C-alpha cells in the first residue's frame, strides 16, 4: 500500500485554517494520505508514520507543502524520518522525500497566474496596530514553550495544552503569560520550557515533569534541578 504524508510548515496558521487545507489535500490525494504540520498544534509526523505503517503502508512519500518550503526543514525532515526508521521494529516501510513545490515550474506558473478571489483594502485609521495592543497583560511569570519542529515532534503541543490546564488547576493562569515559540536552539533537550524572570530553561517531557515545574518553580520559587538544562547568562554553545 502506498501512502502520502503532506507536511505543512506554518506557525501562524490557526488550527481551523490548517484543518481546512488538510482536508482538501487528503481528499485530493491519489492514495491514503495524512496531513500534518510541523509547528504550533497537532500531532508530529512520527505519529503519522506510526499510523500508516500500522495500517500496512509499505511505501510512504513525505510531501512538503508550502511555497517556498524551508531549506532547513528540507534537510531536517529526512533525518527525522531516518530516526523513526532506526527505531522501527520489524520490516519498515520504504520512505521517500518529495521535492518541495518550488522545484515544479508548472506549479509555479500556476501559482503566479491562478484566478483567486480578492478583496479591496480600505484606508484604516488604526493602521496595522489596532486598539488594545499597547501593553502586555499583567503577569508574574513569562513561560516560553517551544513548539518548533523538533519539540513538536516530541509532543510539545500536547504539553502546552497540559501546561495551561495545570496552571488553571493551580489557579496560576492570571499570573502567567504563556507564549509558544519557534525553535529556541537546545532541540535535543526538548520539549523546552523557559521561565522568566528566573531565566531557567527546562526539559519537560511529560505530565509528571509539568507538575514538578508548576509546584516547584512557580509555587515554591525553587529550581527543579532534575529538569534544568540551561540558565540565561550561563555559558552555552554558539548556534
Ligand atoms: S525545536 Fe524546540 S528547541 Fe529547537
Notable characteristics:
globular; Glutaredoxin; 2 domains; alpha/beta; four-stranded parallel sheet; binds FE2/S2 (inorganic) cluster; 239 residues; five-stranded mixed sheet; Rossmann fold; 9 strands
- Topology as H/E string? EHEHEHEHEHHEEEHE
- Count of the separate structural domains: 2
What is the 3D shape? globular
Helix content: 25-40%
| CATH-assigned fold name of the largest domain | Rossmann fold
Structure description:
- It is a single chain.
- With 239 residues, this protein is of the alpha/beta class.
- It has two domains: 2-112, 3-Layer(aba) Sandwich (Rossmann fold), CATH 3.40.50; 141-231, 3-Layer(aba) Sandwich (Glutaredoxin), CATH 3.40.30.
- The protein is 35% helix and 21% strand.
- It is built from seven helices and nine strands; from the N terminus they run E-H-E-H-E-H-E-H-E-H-H-E-E-E-H-E.
- The chain has helices at residues 15-28, 45-54, 71-87, 105-113, 149-153, 156-169, 207-220; strands spanning 2-8, 32-37, 59-65, 94-97, 141-146, 176-181, 192-196, 200-203, 228-231.
- Strands 6-5-7-8-9 form a five-stranded mixed β-sheet, covered by helices on one side. A four-stranded parallel β-sheet has the order 2-1-3-4, sandwiched between helices.
- Helix 6 packs across helix 7.
- The protein is globular, with a radius of gyration of 21 Å.
- The model has no long low-confidence stretch (mean pLDDT 92).
- The structure holds FE2/S2 (inorganic) cluster (FES).
Amino acid at each position: 500500500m502506498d501512502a502520502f504524508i503532506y507536511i505543512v510548515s506554518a506557525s501562524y496558521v490557526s488550527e481551523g485554517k490548517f484543518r481546512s487545507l488538510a482536508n482538501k489535500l487528503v481528499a485530493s490525494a491519489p492514495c491514503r494520505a495524512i496531513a500534518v504540520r510541523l509547528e504550533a498544534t497537532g500531532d508530529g509526523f512520527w505519529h503519522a508514520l506510526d499510523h500508516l505503517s500500522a495500517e500496512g503502508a509499505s511505501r510512504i512519500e513525505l510531501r512538503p507543502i508550502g511555497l517556498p518550503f524551508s531549506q532547513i526543514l528540507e534537510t531536517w525532515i529526512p533525518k527525522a524520518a531516518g530516526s523513526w526508521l532506526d527505531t522501527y521494529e520489524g520490516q519498515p516501510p520504504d520512505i521517500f522525500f518529495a521535492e518541495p513545490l518550488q522545484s515544479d515550474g508548472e506549479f509555479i506558473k500556476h501559482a503566479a497566474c491562478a484566478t483567486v478571489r480578492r478583496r479591496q483594502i480600505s484606508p484604516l485609521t488604526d493602521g496595522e496596530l489596532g486598539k488594545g495592543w499597547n501593553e502586555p497583560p499583567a503577569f508574574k511569570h513569562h513561560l516560553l514553550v517551544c513548539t518548533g519542529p523538533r519539540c513538536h515532534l516530541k509532543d510539545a503541543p500536547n504539553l502546552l495544552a497540559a501546561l495551561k490546564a495545570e496552571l488553571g488547576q493551580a489557579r496560576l493562569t492570571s499570573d502567567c503569560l504563556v507564549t509558544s515559540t519557534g525553535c529556541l536552539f537546545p532541540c535535543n533537550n526538548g520539549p523546552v520550557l523557559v521561565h522568566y524572570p528566573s531565566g531557567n530553561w527546562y526539559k519537560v517531557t511529560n505530565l509528571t515533569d509539568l507538575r514538578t515545574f508548576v509546584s516547584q518553580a512557580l509555587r515554591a520559587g525553587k529550581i527543579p534541578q532534575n529538569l534544568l538544562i540551561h540558565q540565561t547568562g550561563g555559558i552555552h554553545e554558539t548556534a
